[in-house]
Amino acid sequence: MRIDAYPPQEPLPEVARIFHETLMARAEGIEGHEYSYGADPSQSLMVFPCEKPGSPVLMFMHGGAWTNGYKEQMAFLAPPLNAAGFTLVSASYRLAPKYVFPANFDDVADAFAKTWGLAETHGYRRDAIFTGGHSAGGHLAALLATRTDWQGQRGLPANAVKGCLPISATFDFTPGSGSSVRPRFLGPEGVFSEVKASPLFQIGERVPPFLVAYGSDDFAHLKVQGEKFAMVARAKGASVDTLEIDGADHVNALLMATQTDKPWMAAATRFMSAVAKRI
């Protein structure tokens, strides 16, 4: 989809603008199959299938503080994932401030259901779909993996998400969690959305394996939250690995994902392969 076909997004600060341009440059020339899962242009996804049939799938969501971002930005992840035997699905979702929680969560849940439904079309494994994302997208991926109130509504089994790979994600929006401002996607003050939007407080008895990643120079509260999420999830019986990406700040934690001298891609494919073999 052409970027100008999307609804207008919030003006970007300079650092975010450069990040966007870098991602789009890296994605140039990488073609996928586009599908809609709703009427809004942001309710869409792209499938970058692995040539080998029967591949596991990573459904990955872009970041952008829940106010910006496009599925096209994540196309640069497709070549190394495809080469390692994985299909990539990149999903967009409706953004704040026009749309507030749970609109974006409902969207990624619908995107997951669409991904599930496209398995026969593209020959990938319906029983081996993982979620992941960077920053805001990592938060939404984690929420899909921890909440259990959306699968049945969409005709999916409770264990449809087989694993989760958030990068630099927020896991807690409650007061004292370390965020300097209340994210606008949560809606106005006084609306009880902080707990329902926080993966930390959605951990139940059935949580799939996680690979929680963040940069060594990432926002301090995200590193703390990632470790706390891992500790709580492990205490409840979940399998959670953590990965600190050396030399990466919040932006570079994603930009380094495909670099062979950085650990994320190797760790991610190893993690998904191990889980898929056990299914």
Automatic annotation (TrEMBL):
Indicate the enzyme's highest-level EC class.
Answer: hydrolase
Organism name = Sphingobium subterraneum
User: The Alpha/beta hydrolase fold-3 domain covers which part of the protein?
Assistant: 58-251
Q: Which SUPFAM superfamilies match?
A: alpha/beta-Hydrolases
* Any Pfam family the entry gives: Abhydrolase_3
Q: Is Hydrolase one of the keywords?
A: yes
Assigned keywords, A-Z? Hydrolase
Entry protein name: Arylformamidase
